[in-house]
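Lab channel / #folding
Pinned by the channel admin:
"Please post every new chain as: sequence first, then the structure tokens as a reply. Keep commentary short and put observations after the output so the thread stays searchable."

First post following the new format, from NK:
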Amino acid sequence: MSIGWVIVLAIIVVIAAFLILTYNRLVTLRQRVNEAFSDIDVQLKRRHDLIPNLIETVKGYAAHERGVFDEVTRARAGAVAAGSQGPQERAQAENVLTGALRSLFAVAEAYPQLQAVQEFKDLSENLRDTEDKIQFSRRFYNGQVRDYNTALQTFPTVALAGMFGFKASEYFEVEEPADREVPKVSFTPTT
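Reply from TO:
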């Protein structure tokens, strides 16, 4: 075998190794994005499961606040229905739910005796903990999306990503500045 054929064969092996390593790296990054989105999904489900109990607890003390309960119930149903959609649609539905929860906690603040009920305290604490986990999961997901999208857009991967069918992922973003705030949960009676 001549030296020319050895060089050609070595170049082919190097290119094949590069293609395999690049493809595997992109698959790994895409799987990390999918896993991170799944983590958000778990926390959002937990949040959705807590809300009906919280509504029932508050209902007993504030029966005349029917509009707020209906709003939270509709927002929760919309958020659950958005579960099969992409990150942007889910984020919008969750933002509506966050706004409705703010209204619910505003109603709860008007009833100091409700804030003394252990079940309300426990549910509120669980919801606050879940909100913190959702926030962490969103940051983790967005970090994974950043890494994946950066890998897709850097040279020479950018030339290969399209050929292999890799597409950029969406960030899980909050659109309204007011929706960037965590719902306020306060146990101090208003005076």
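NK: Residues 3-180 form a domain with the de novo design (two linked rop proteins) fold (CATH 1.20.1440.20).
TO: also worth noting, Helices lie at 3-59, 66-81, 87-109, 112-115, 118-153, 157-164.
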